[in-house]
Amino acid sequence: MGTKIIIPNMVTLSNLLLGIISLNYTMNEQYTVAAISILLAMMMDGMDGKIARKLDVASNFGKQLDSLCDLVSFGVAPALLVYGSSLQAIGPSGLIIALIFALCGAIRLARFNVLDINDHFIGVPITFAGSLLALAVLIASRLPLSVLFFSVFTLLLAYLMVSNLKVPKY
Amino acid sequence: MGTKIIIPNMVTLSNLLLGIISLNYTMNEQYTVAAISILLAMMMDGMDGKIARKLDVASNFGKQLDSLCDLVSFGVAPALLVYGSSLQAIGPSGLIIALIFALCGAIRLARFNVLDINDHFIGVPITFAGSLLALAVLIASRLPLSVLFFSVFTLLLAYLMVSNLKVPKY
C-alpha cells in the first residue's frame, strides 16, 4: 500500500473539486461551464475505483470518500445548476423540485452504502442521474428546452434514483 | 421500528435542505441568511442522532445519510459562503482556500466513518468547523473582519479537521 493509496483518493477528491467549481460557475450564471464541470467529475468518478483496484489499494475509506463527493458533484451541483439555468423561472416550486432531486440523491447514496450489493444497482446511480441533468443543461444552451421539460425530467430522475429498479453494473 | 425510523431521517434530510438553501442564498449574495441557514442546519444535526437513539431506531442508514448531509451543510455551503462574502476579493487564491476547507471536511468525514470511535473525536468535527465559519460570516456583517482574517481562519479550521487532535464528545 504505502503512498499508492493516495492516488485513487486524489482522483476522488478531484471529483469533489469539480463539483464545487461547478457550483461556483452556477453562482456566476456560467451554466455551460458548470455543466461541463459535472461531466468532467463523472469521468473522474469512473476512474478512481478502477485505479484503486488496479493498484490493489481499494479501501473502505476510499468508498466512503467517493460517496461523500458524489452527493456534491452529482446531487447538489446538478440540482442548483438546473434551478439556476431553468427552474428558477417558476419560483419556489422550481427550488422544491431541485431540492427533491438532491434529497433523493442522498437517500440513494445512503441506501447503496448500507445494502452493499456488488453485482447490480438498486435504483439509478446518482452519478448517472446527475450527469444526465448536466447534459440536458448543456443541450439547452443550443436547443430550447422548456421549464416544463426540466421539471418533469428532474423529478423523473429523482424518482428513478430511489426506485427499486434493478440496474446492471457495466 | 416501522414508521418511527422515518422521523430522525427526516430531521437529517432537513439538515441537507438547509445546506442547499444556504448555497442558494449565497448565490443571491444574501450572505447573512446563508449563514443563518447553516446554523439552523447545525441545530438539526444535533437533534437527529438524539431522536434516533430515544426512539431506539438508530440505524447504519441514518449514520450514512447524516455524514452525506454534513459534507454539504458544513463543508461545501460554508466554503462557498466564505468565498462569496469575503475570499473572492483575493481571486483564485480565495477559491483555493475555500476548496481546501471543503476537501479537508470530506477527508474528516470519510475518516470518521471508517475509524468508528465512539468516546471521542479525532480532529475537529466538520459540524463545528462549518458552523464556526458561518458564525464568523454572520459577525462580519456587523464588524469589519478582513480577508486576511478569513483566509487564516478558514485554513486553520481546515487543518484542525484533518489533524490528530483528540476532541472530547459532549
Give a verbal description of the structure.
The structure is a homodimer of 170-residue chains. Chain A is mainly alpha-helical and 170 residues long. Chain A has helices at 6-27, 31-54, 60-85, 92-115, 126-140, 147-162, and strands spanning 120-122, 166-168. Chain A has a single domain (2-168), classed as Four Helix Bundle (Hemerythrin (Met), subunit A) (Up-down Bundle). Chain A has a two-stranded antiparallel sheet. In chain A, helix 1 runs antiparallel to helix 2 and helix 1 (6-27) runs parallel beside helix 3 (60-85). The longest helix of chain A is centred in the middle third of the chain and has 26 residues, at 60-85. The mean pLDDT of chain A is 92. Chains A, B: Keywords: Lipid biosynthesis, Lipid metabolism, Membrane, Phospholipid biosynthesis, Phospholipid metabolism, Transferase, Transmembrane, Transmembrane helix. Chains A, B: InterPro entries: CDP-alcohol_PTase-I, CDP-diaglyc--ser_O-PTrfase, CDP-OH_P_trans, CDP-OH_PTrfase_TM_dom, CDP_ALCOHOL_P_TRANSF_CS. Chains A, B: This is CDP-diacylglycerol--serine O-phosphatidyltransferase. Chains A, B: It catalyses: a CDP-1,2-diacyl-sn-glycerol + L-serine = a 1,2-diacyl-sn-glycero-3-phospho-L-serine + CMP + H(+).
